[in-house]
Design a protein that fits this description.
There is one protein chain. With about 325 residues, the chain is of the alpha/beta class. It has two domains: about 1-225, 3-Layer(aba) Sandwich (Rossmann fold), CATH 3.40.50.300; about 235-325, Alpha-Beta Plaits (2-Layer Sandwich). It is built from eleven helices and 16 strands. The chain has a six-stranded mixed beta sheet, with helices on both faces. The radius of gyration is 23 Å and the shape is elongated. It starts with a strand and ends with a helix.
Length: about 325
């Protein structure tokens, strides 16, 4: 079990067998209006997991989510949901896989209670009691026209409809964009509680690394339609450590490192200097680096868990990409 910062426990999904996957894609590509939006993407979501999908605007996150929900069909490759090939009419799949996005349209003139009533007719597993509880918890005004709701309340209404429909998989497309910090925390807390209580699987597309670190078990990074990185978040964090050293002579370590090019062979994937303080992100055993630092004149060495944002930046830069290019471009 993995403890997250919203004080709820999310089931760990360390198993790697395909039988535990609720969604799988095999070499999918998607061309829209002559533009290749996704290129040979292999992606899987395990039962009961929260899978973070990271990428900037235009990276292909929305297109991938729409493929997983059956809104789009792949130009090439396969999408399997609950082990079945997703082709043709996906109405039955959308009973079990619910997509929530900020650009989802509402019916003109609908009030909150009208939308809930309509949704109760659409979804076979609609939970009226759950819908009522969510409306109360989120303080949604039943008689208010939806067009008059704030951006945050509209997104919370979408989430309420999604959760009351009791999906097996919840797809979230940048759901916290434009939300203030209090509403964002409440929104994310609801999702975490739902996963903990029901075993629902979630795919959470965002460019906010702090949200993923708080709630995701797994992570995939999309850049220009390709998957750059994919795996278990805790595995990434335990495979790497940060070593911080205080050096006696500021330039001594840099000179030695440049002279013999030893650092990459010591498992170092990133190095940063701040005066006499030098930090290293290391993959695997840190003892060779610690010995090297002592021999190079380090007067103090500490080892600590690496922050995910720092690790993310290091791994992406190692592959020749910058953090800003992936998240902000």
């Amino acid at each position: 079990m993995i403890k997250n910062s919203f004080d709820a426990t999310v089931p760990s999904t360390s198993a790697s067998t395909s039988t535990s996957n609720v969604i799988e894609t095999f070499g999918i590509s998607k061309i829209i209006d002559g533009n290749t939006v996704l290129r040979d993407v292999n992606f899987s979501v395990r039962k009961g997991s929260v899978h973070g999908l990271v990428g900037s605007n235009g990276a292909g996150k929305t297109t991938l989510l729409r493929l997983l929900n059956g809104v789009y069909e792949p130009t090439k490759g396969e999408v399997r949901v609950f082990g079945q090939l997703l082709v043709g009419d996906a109405a039955a799949i959308r009973q079990r896989v619910h997509l929530v996005s900020a650009d989802g349209a509402f019916y003109p003139g609908f009030r909150v209670q009208d939308l809930l009533q309509y949704a109760s007719l659409l979804y076979e597993k609609w939970d009226k009691t759950r819908a009522k509880d969510l409306v109360t918890a989120l303080d949604l005004p039943l008689h208010q026209p939806i067009r008059k709701l704030s951006l945050g309340m509209k997104m919370q209404l979408r989430l309420a409809v999604a959760l009351a429909s009791r999906p097996d998989v919840l797809l979230l497309d940048e759901p916290t964009n434009g939300l203030d910090p209090v509403v964002r925390r409440q929104f994310l807390g609801l999702i975490v509680q739902e996963v903990a209580g029901t075993g629902m699987s979630v795919v959470f597309a965002t460019h906010r690394l702090e949200e993923l670190e708080a709630m995701a078990d797994e992570i995939s990074v999309l850049y220009q339609g390709r998957t750059l990185l994919s795996g278990n978040l805790e595995d990434f964090k335990t495979a790497y450590r940060e070593v911080v050293a205080v050096v006696g002579a500021h330039d001594a370590l840099d000179d030695r490192a440049s002279a013999n090019d030893s650092l990459p062979h010591l498992g170092v994937v990133a190095q940063h200097s701040r005066g006499k303080i030098q930090s290293f992100i290391v993959k695997g055993d840190t003892s060779p680096l610690r010995s090297y630092l002592l021999q190079s004149g380090a007067v103090h060495i500490e080892e600590q868990p690496v922050k995910f944002e720092d690790l993310f930046r290091a791994l992406m830069e190692k592959e020749g990409y910058t953090r800003d290019a992936i998240l902000l471009s």
